[in-house]
Write a structure and sequence with these properties.
Elements (H helix, E strand, L loop, with lengths): L3 H56 L4 H11 L4 E5 L6 E8 L8 E13 L2 E11 L2 H34 L1 H11 L17 H50 L6 H31 L7 E4 H11 L1 H6 L3 E6 L4 E4 L1 H17 L6 E6 L3 E7 L26 H12 L2 E7 L2 E7 L3
Parallel strand pairs: 6-8
Antiparallel strand pairs: 1-4, 2-3, 3-4, 5-7, 8-9, 9-11, 10-11
Helix pairs in contact: 1-3, 5-6, 6-10, 7-9, 9-10
Length: 428
């Protein structure tokens, strides 16, 4: 996972590379424009000087034919010829092989053709000046740009470490204190004061949020503890009174049936109370202690404990459990999860059926036969109705889901080939 500072630096580097690469052709076009402009100016100045010198020679009575011959011999690249008529001046830009330095290859020339008249005679003067070639200019610009790019990136990395790290230090201090915070220890978190307004606002908001959560956590913890005690006491009294009433010698068959119904309702209320309190404790993270647990021996122990249930319904259990599966979890919650999964399979399978248990490092699957698929929408919800003839409290699968959430696992279900598959994904 990338750090915040590295991510911003990467964006800056990519942006800088794009800008600098795009600048190479722009630099070339600008330099080439300036270079051509200066060459044209140079050619115009040279043409004006030649014209002025010819006029001076004409005034001195020097032979123009001899002067032209001498000029063309001394400057073969600048053709000065007498013509019948004049035309508008023009420029050109061509690549031509240098006849004086053939090893140099092709050179680029900027030329000017100008026309003028002296004493009724028309002349054509063409002058050329060698320019820098693009295949030489562009690599040079690319090299310079690359050099400055390296300097720029080195500077950004250096400044990022020296300035940004110091700038974001209060933020990292806040993260470190949050990572060491434990809601169950009821210890206040003291955030450092920073000279940056946004960080101070963040710390104040976090401090307010943590204090609020600590108060809610404490209230819920006290509620579950009080509810556990206050509800269990009257339930025990009711059970005791029913026992006394059941032992009455004058008890009629009709009254006995009523007491049995009351017993059944009382047992259901007791289970409901126990499961609701268990859910509240799991959601409040009241099972903080975790340890490394070997799944295979724990499953075998749990199957041994439930052997009487399997025997009573003549059910066969087939297991395929990988050895060496180690889970870092709370032993109590793991025991409850396995207990709920297996009792669910026993309770909702017909007598004589087969139950399959599969465990790998990635997944734990308990499969039991069923006539039709369950309603998956409410399957792991509290008091969710999964089948029309469902007889449970509606909390067993909800408890399984909460235990999975507490461990970073995922509870799932599918129906395949006449079997319900309850799947615990152990590695997400």
């Amino acid at each position: 996972m990338n750090k915040l500072l590295n991510r911003s630096l990467r964006v800056f580097i990519i942006y800088s590379a794009i800008v600098l690469l795009a600048s190479v052709p722009v630099y070339y076009l600008i330099v080439d424009f300036i270079w051509r402009h200066e060459i044209k100016e140079h050619n115009r100045i040279e043409a004006a000087a030649v014209k002025q010198n010819l006029q001076t020679l004409e005034q001195r009575g020097t032979s123009m034919e001899a002067a032209l011959t001498l000029w063309n011999q001394l400057h073969p690249a600048s053709a000065l010829t007498e013509v019948a008529e004049t035309r508008p001046d023009s420029t050109y830009n061509i690549y031509r092989k240098n006849k004086y330095l053939p090893k140099k290859g092709y050179d680029r020339y900027e030329g000017l053709v100008t026309w003028f008249s002296i004493n009724g005679k028309n002349y054509r003067f063409a002058v050329e000046t060698n320019m820098e070639e693009s295949y030489e200019t562009i690599p040079a610009l690319g090299f310079v740009t690359g050099l400055f790019f390296v300097i720029l990136i080195a500077g950004l990395i250096y400044l990022n470490k020296r300035i940004s790290v110091r700038l974001w230090q209060p933020f990292y201090d806040t993260i470190q204190r949050l990572q060491s915070f434990d809601l169950q220890q009821h210890q206040p978190v003291h955030f450092p004061t920073a000279d940056i307004e946004e960080f101070n606002t963040l710390n104040l908001s976090l401090d307010k949020l943590i204090r609020s959560n600590q108060a809610v956590y404490q209230q819920q913890k006290e509620f579950t503890q009080n509810a556990s005690h206050e509800l269990q006491t009257p339930l025990a009294i009711i059970r005791f009174k029913l026992d006394l009433l059941y032992q009455s010698p004058d008890l009629t068959l009709e009254q006995s049936a009523l007491i049995d119904q009351a017993y059944e309702a009382l047992s259901r209320v007791s289970r409901l109370n126990k499961n609701l309190l268990l859910l509240a404790k799991i959601e409040n993270s009241q099972f903080p202690d975790k340890e490394d647990i070997q799944l295979k021996p724990l499953l075998e122990e749990k199957l041994q404990e439930l052997q009487d249930f399997f025997t009573d319904k003549s059910q066969q259990v087939h297991t395929q459990i990988d050895a060496g599966i180690c889970l870092h979890t709370n032993i109590t919650l793991m025991d409850i999860l396995l207990n709920n999964l297996l009792l669910n399979a026993i309770r909702y399978s017909d007598a004589g059926s087969e139950i399959h248990i599969t465990a790998t490092p990635e997944v734990l699957i308990v499969a039991n036969p069923g006539k039709e698929a369950l309603l998956t929408e409410n399957l792991f919800q509290r008091f969710g109705t999964v089948t029309p003839d469902y007889q449970g409290t509606g909390l067993g699968l909800a408890i399984i889901r909460q235990i999975c959430l507490a461990n970073g696992w995922e509870a799932g279900y599918n129906y395949h080939n006449g079997y319900h598959h309850f799947i615990i994904s152990l590695k997400l």
